Amino acid sequence: MENFAMLFHGFSVVFSLQNLGACLLGSILGLIVGAMPGIGSLAGVALLLPLTYKFDPTTAIIMLGALYYSNMYGGAFSAILLNIPGDSPAVLTAVDGYPMATVKKRPGQALMTANASSCIGGIIGMLILVILGPALAELGLKFGPAEMTVLLLVAMTSIGWLVGGNPVQGLLLSFIGILVASIGMDVQTGRPRFDFGNIYLLGGVEFIPFVIGTVGFAQLMQLMDEKDDVVHAVTDKLTIRGSMLTAHDWKRLTPPSIRAGVMGTFVGVLPGAGATAASFLAYAMQKAFKSEEPLGTGAIEGIAASESANNAAAAGSFAPLLALGIPGSGTGAVLLGGLMMWGLNPGPLLFQNEPDFAWGLIASLFISNIVALAISLGIIPVLLKILKVPIRVMIPVIMIVCFLGAYASTYSMFGVIVMLISGVCGYIFEKNDYSTAPMLLAFVLAPLLEDNMRKAFIATAGDISEVFFSSGISIVLTTVLIVICAFPVVRTILIKTGKYTPKKKSA
Amino acid sequence: MNSKKVVKIPTLQIIPVIGFIIGLVFFMVGMGDFGFWNHDTNTPTEGFFPIIIATGLMIFSVMAFLQNIRKSGVEYRLLNWYVPLGFVGLLAGIMIIGTVPAVIVFEILWCRFYEKLSWKVTIIATIFCLIMVVPIFTWWLTVDFPIGIIGNLIMGY
Fold first, then answer.
1. Could you report the per-residue pLDDT of B59-116, keeping only the tens digit for each?
2. Which one of B72, B97, B127 terminates a domain?
3. Roughly how many angstroms between the first and final C-alpha of chain B, as a whole number?
4. Engineering a disulfide at A308: which of A172, A211, A257, B85 sits with its beta carbon 3.0 to 4.6 angstroms away?
């Protein structure tokens, strides 16, 4: 009950004109960015991060939270109306959403199903977050430097093989991310290191230009491949009245939304799993339950499962982010970078030391959920016009946004050059199937990992066994770490000996 | 220039090689400038953590190289590289004529003359960009963007 009392306190924090305005702005921008095919939540949050400079930390993160959250709503729009998922979590929404819009001629109802189930999933996710967040933080208080070291290693390695298909490649990029983050001042002594005689490197590589380049600029280079694609959009005129669901539709969408919402939240809590995995698992789970129509033919149950799970996972991913300071995804890493930029250190003490901020953010997620739902309904009549903005127009505009964001964060052309170089590298990595999300996560978590690791080694005078096996928590986490590290090796051996054949990815 | 021209480059092998070189450089600089462990105080040095990571990077680079050694080159289209090339042009323009004029020229060149979009769309896109540069970033976020060599000459700097 205490948690819910704190949640109401959070609402009192959020209910200021500035915070509500930021929440509204974040929701609108998130919906637009999420709806634009090909941009995605990671690039969207990275590109819009500089817009929050003017706000105080609470307002800024409320806006970013709203942006990230409403992005999940937006991803479904292009999936349903264009058969192009705005982001990877919406891939399975397209499988049933597009047939429902085109074959069944119910585009408005498909959109409404996505919106309603997103809202249900989101509320479930947030309620679990209210209960789980402080409990996780309490557990986190038992973590010393040794436990934090192992936990951070688990987070980094698990995201390395969960997000990227190839664990070795994921770890390679994670290590590059850590080394890039180690350029500049040493975290404990303040002594310059790895600046290679360059005055600009003394302050280290700035987070914002690095992230804008790695995801935003790299995405632009990829978008050039799609700029001339012909879009087969739904041709029916959309109206709010014509999009209303019947009582029977509600009966069909509610049970899968609740099931997927609960499951999606717990998937979102796991590092690296995220909204995409939640949506895929929920869809697979729905296959085990009865649906009125077969999944894949425009079934309401399919849209509901996918959308509810990805929104619930987005809410669930805030639990480890706020309570332990460990993001569950690339977008979470960008949010964490934003928090650190404003001098806030998420972790076990956040709920105690910064209750206004922690509970204000959670309360703002509830409001964002409602605001995103209201705006989603409101823009239905003009949705097709928004979605039909050609990629050819978006590319030069986003290039300007990349420049503005990179320059504004560093006030120098050096930041812009960092952005350009990381953008080209990000494109080459993605082109070679190296996922850049582990690199971003490693870049953000590297100072925390180094600080804890050095403290742990100082405390134990260099005794490795004391670091990894000093407490029950350490032993459990070290075991998990060993399993994660052994997985790629065992998998390779099994493939080579012919005992295991990896399944080809579909969709 | 044919923008659809495809070039095959063995980047699947090149990336691990570069990863190994980065690891080696950090390892050497870390060992040379900072060392790994301070035996006098029995504590880790500034090089402790980067050296461990650099070692890991070299190991995973070798593994990634061995995994991909037989794979063929990855296809790159010239078209995708127009983005960084255009961006370098934009930066050159900013350094010479300043941010606002460079943004206008860039949008017109890209939208109207490269993409062959209508003047209406070009002007809308340009106005959208200018709204971001002037009211949002310059006035609201108080960011002073470069005014370029010509701007500096006019202002007498």
1. 999 999 998 998 999 999 999 999 999 999 999 999 999 999 999 999 999 999 999 9
2. B72
3. 41
4. A257
- Say yes or no: B63 and B102 in one domain: no
Q: Mark whether B100 and B60 lie in a shared domain.
A: no
Measure the CA–CA gap between B121 and B112, rounded to whole angstroms. 9
- DSSP readout, B45-72? -TTHHHHHHHHHHHHHHHHHHHHHTTPP
Tokens of B83: 């983005």
The token duo for B122 is: 């070009």
CA proximity to A333, closest of A164, A220, A341: A341
pTM for this entry: 0.83
Q: Closest partner residue to B43 among A176, A196, A458, by Cβ? A: A458
The answer as to whether B120 is a domain residue is yes
Is the Cβ–Cβ distance between A12 and A52 less than 8 Å?
Answer: no
Determine whether the interchain pair A432/B11 forms a contact, defined as Cβ–Cβ distance below 8 Å: yes
Q: What is the pLDDT of residues A46-97, one digit of tens each?
A: 887 888 877 888 888 888 888 887 887 887 888 888 777 767 778 888 889 9
Instruction: Give the whole-angstrom CA distance, residue A478 versus residue A467.
Output: 10
Query: Is residue B57 domain-shared with residue B26, that is, in the same domain?
Result: yes
Could you give the CA distance from residue A489 to residue A486 in angstroms, rounded to a whole number? 5
B8: phi then psi, degrees, rounded to nearest 5:
-95, 125
Q: Which one, of A209, A400, A424, A33, lies nearest residue B82 by Cα?
A: A424
- Which amino acid is residue A38, in one-letter code? G
Element (H, E) at A283: helix A274-288
Residues B67 and B112 in one domain: no
**Residue of B25, B53, B63, B115 to mutate for A, most A C-beta atoms under 10 A:** B53
Closest CA relative to residue A73, chosen from A109, A119, A108, A38: A119
Parent domain of B29: 6-72
Residue B1 belongs to some domain of the structure: no
The count of structural domains within chain B is 2
Looking at the complex, does the CB of residue B22 fall below 8 Å from at least one CB of chain A?
Answer: yes
Q: Which of residues 31-60 of B touch A (CB under 8 A)?
A: 33-34, 37, 42-44, 46-50, 53-54, 56-57, 60
**Chain A residues lying within 8 Å of B117, measured CB to CB:** 390, 392-393
